[in-house]
Prior knowledge:
Blueprint: H1 6-14, H2 22-30, H3 43-51, H4 57-65, H5 68-79, H6 88-101, H7 119-124, E1 127-128, H8 130-143, H9 151-154, E2 173-174, H10 191-197, E3 198-201, E4 214-220, E5 222-223, E6 226-227, H11 230-244, H12 247-255, H13 262-273, H14 282-294, E7 300-303, H15 304-308, E8 320-324, E9 335-343, H16 347-363, H17 365-376, H18 383-393, E10 404-412, H19 425-453, E11 461-465, H20 473-482
Parallel strand pairs: 1-2, 4-11, 9-10, 10-11
Antiparallel strand pairs: 3-4, 5-6, 7-8, 8-9
Amino acid sequence: MKKMCFGTFFTILCQAKLNINQQDFFELIMSAFDIPGGVDSDKGTVGHYKKGEDLVEEIINAAQNTPIELVVSYVNKHLLPKLNKNKNINLVLAIKDILNNDTTLSGSTIIGRSSDFTKDRIINSSTFSLPSLLANVLVYSICDIKNSTCVKNIKEIPKNYLDSFDDSSTKIYFNENPPRINFELDYTAKVESFNNTFVEVEHTGNLPLSNPSNVKIYHLNILNNRFDFRNISQFIKTNIGNYVFSRAKIKDYSLNNDVQSIGLDALRELQRTGSSLSDDNHFSEIMLYSFLECALNAPKIMSKIELSNTGGSFRSHSSGVHLLPSENLSILNHQLVFGASKIVNNLKDAVDNALVQIKEISNNQDEEYNLIEGSILTAIFPPDLTVYLKNLLIPNRQGIDRPDVAYGIFLSYEIEHQTPESISNVEFRNYIKEKMKSDIEAIIPYIYSQINGLGLESSSFYIYVLPLINLNDKERIMENALGVSI
């Protein structure tokens, strides 16, 4: 019987490590904790730990006293770079296999310090935050089980154990942002400001689609039992020009030494198009742009307002178009992400309305693609970028494919909440976060069934949700940002 203990976990991590010796690797792992006097990482000590000797009390106490958030951050920053990225899925499958074989644990056993990582949830989930999973398993293996009780179990992990999962057909997805790739199409939104404005709530739901997808939920900063609008209003004010105008137009402002006029001119453009976009909502479309650029790391090609200004008989159904670059720029598997954005009183209706828009985009996919291709040949991009995008989106060589079509969705809804006066500020914060978590985990199976019903299960979906306490707050946010109602 396989059993999760430090010897077992360290063994599988060693099978994934890159060019670092076992002693230095052990010291690297243990540096996640503040251990008095440092770590004894000589060959004999590490070898004994790997074979099942109990860890010293200093290590166990340090692991118990280190907040799990700090361990997660350390794993992400220092441990993952020392692991073979091609073995990330194998590590998850190995952890699932070991826990599944460990009959001494009940399904509700928490593996680590987060209730998200129970034995059953780990075994049955297919989407993970890898740093969080590894950090929680590490803490569990050190603090919650004696290493010496697993001597026989450690021997059940053969030298080729991790490699044995290479041919597994099990789908595993990682709920992490793709990296910000440094390539020709630059990012326009300010990611630092985004990170100070929107707070992600982690959950265990996932979309088990055949291609990479995610569903993420965020909240604004909370102040006195209300969402605080100051940061989001400032974020919109800072980014409104880059949302409204093309890169070529922004470059013209810079060349003419007139950058200070961008915000005012952007506001005028929003007001000018207000009547023609009466069925849409500027707030939701700006949020879609912001989340696709800053959370998905997919630079804008054209926003909704740019699409609405594009000439021709075909009117785009999309709320914006972004390009998600491949992590490996030597492999041309970029995605063209068409967006939908909806704000409705309840989350299910928001999902339904967004998917109606997605279906319209899908039904008119050729026309949507032709609109983007035609726009690239005009002056909405600087000349050098026009050439780059033309070669990328309009391939003229045999064997070069266009980027795949994917879908990005922004949703907002009125979150049901307790009367603020009846609970403390701390209780309200905890309540809102737990309510958001339960809302998103409950709706994901419905989203998956609707995507399948539309026949779009072969596409990637990137879904971002931002609840509001009152939907009228979106007007307040925009007025605070721009100084006027639009």
